[in-house]
Design brief:
By secondary structure, this protein is of the alpha/beta class. The chain has eleven helices and eight strands.
């Protein structure tokens, strides 16, 4: 894509998540993040429980932080320790950041980066209202992180990197900001079959975490090119149960799955 096309994709995604950020929180959510989705299936907690969040995690998050979005639970694989510095790519209203802050404790720090001003504002409001002093939200693109070099222990992300028009740059930035030995703990979407042309060319499908997905092998190759080691990309068959509802009648579970993505920053980045 050209830079102009990349910006058009980002603006379309930004507009979609602006709508989500400013809508009234009424305790319900549709399974599909698509604006075209019409199949509602319970509260945001019900949706997040299907993604792998425990009842304890759901109870711990402040009201208004969980928007019922995502495709898994990066908390389950992050193994966050007290005192660590954590970064969430595409932090939305702050759900995963607030959960991480409980694990880092007062000696740790959690940063959330999101490119949608309305999401950042909502997350900051949630932090202030609920007294989270070890969490900070920054406006920025995940391809150009407003984070200093070698400062992060753990990077999380939940169904966001597939939205980027330049995923290699996202992983390059993740490598830059991680400390040596720092790790990725990501839930994201990968393709398991060739998407129909009408889906691949649909910006609404991209904003709904569908058409921008890469294959597991492509994700591994990008991580390797960025310098990561100990790379694991593990598609989750059980994710078909909730993905099938994302676009009613479209059988998206035949084409995409949620995946657990893990990797570690090695000491020497390979030459390109």
């Amino acid at each position: 894509m050209s830079q102009v096309q990349n910006d058009q994709v980002r603006q379309h995604v930004r507009n979609r998540y602006k709508e989500i950020a400013i809508q009234d929180s009424n305790g319900s959510s549709c399974c599909s993040p698509s604006s075209a989705g019409t199949s509602c299936c319970g509260s945001v907690d019900d949706v997040s429980a299907k993604l792998g969040y425990s009842s304890e995690e759901l109870a711990a998050a402040p009201q208004g932080a969980n928007l019922g979005l995502g495709c898994g639970n990066p908390q389950a694989i992050a193994s966050i320790a007290p005192g660590e510095t954590v970064l969430d790519l595409g932090s939305g209203a702050g759900f995963d950041c607030f959960l991480a802050s409980k694990q880092t404790g007062e000696t740790g720090r959690v940063y959330g980066v999101d490119m949608t001003p309305e999401m950042v504002s909502r997350a900051r409001g949630n932090a202030v209202k609920n007294g989270y002093t070890n969490v900070e939200f920054r406006l920025g693109e995940i391809e150009h992180l407003p984070i200093s070099d070698s400062s992060i222990d753990v990077i999380m992300s939940n169904c966001v990197i597939n939205l980027s028009p330049d995923k290699q740059q996202v992983f390059n930035e993740a490598y830059r900001v991680l400390k040596e030995g720092g790790r990725l703990a990501i839930s994201d979407i990968v393709t398991t079959a060739e998407l129909p042309a009408e889906v691949k060319e649909n910006l609404d499908a991209l904003a709904s975490c569908i058409s921008g997905a890469s294959t597991a092998e492509e994700v591994k190759a990008m991580l390797h090119a960025s310098g990561f080691i100990d790379i694991v990309v593990e598609p989750k068959d059980d994710s078909r149960a909730f993905i099938k509802d994302w676009v009613p009648g479209a059988n998206m579970a035949d084409y995409i799955q949620s995946a657990v993505i893990q990797a570690t920053k090695g000491g020497i980045k390979p030459q390109s």
